[in-house]
Predict the 3D structure of the following.
Amino acid sequence: MKILKSPRRRRRLIKLAVVLAFIPLAYLGVHYSTGGKAENANGPEVPNYVVPKHSPFTEAERRAVRPVLAQFIQYAVAREDPSKAWDVAGPALRQGLTRKQWDTGAIPVVNYPAAHKGLGNWSYVKYSYSNTVGLEVFVFPKPGSGYSAMTADAEVVKDKAGRWSVNYWMPERFHGPPAKATQVKATKKAASATAKKSTSQKTAAPAADAGQPPQTRGIWLLVPLGVLSLIILAPLMLLVVGWLRSRRAAARESLGA
């Protein structure tokens, strides 16, 4: 065909084909799409979702939660006895694990050497719903562990029998550098190692020179002194020799006269 032989006409036909192919796609998009409404800007709907209602965290509930939280931190977080933490761990943490697996200590709880100081207390209540409470917990480290104090997010839940358990635990942030006692211990250890190294070097130095005569070091000092003496005395000797020769020559001439 003559039309396809021209490069300019081929480019025009390609552009026209692209436009014609886009028209039905645009029609389908407009026809089957629905316009958004300002009053319906809540995103996708989640079926069977009920917004939890706020519920006060009563004093009686607080007294019941404190020992549960303390046991969980001591046995699960600090790993002092993971088997005892099974009864105070919630269903979300125990999900997918058997009791035997849990007892080995391979549990979905971040390990932290928590001290017994202030166990069971929290900084403040983040939220409180019916049978679910979110807490921010401040935990102190054991002395000499090398850890700083930590803040963790915890969620405690109450089952149908009225028993509380920790259903969520996650460290949020650490406060300050590691414990000062650990830093001092590391500094002392490094200083001790340096002192031992310098002592061994001092002790090894005489052993290396034990096979050499004591006067060897003094002999080496005579070498540069000898070189300096030659540099100074050689010109003087030449002057003296020349002066003596001139005196002898003068004496011979006086005798011959």
Q: What stands out?
A: The chain has eight helices and four strands. Confidence is low (pLDDT under 50) at residues 205-214.
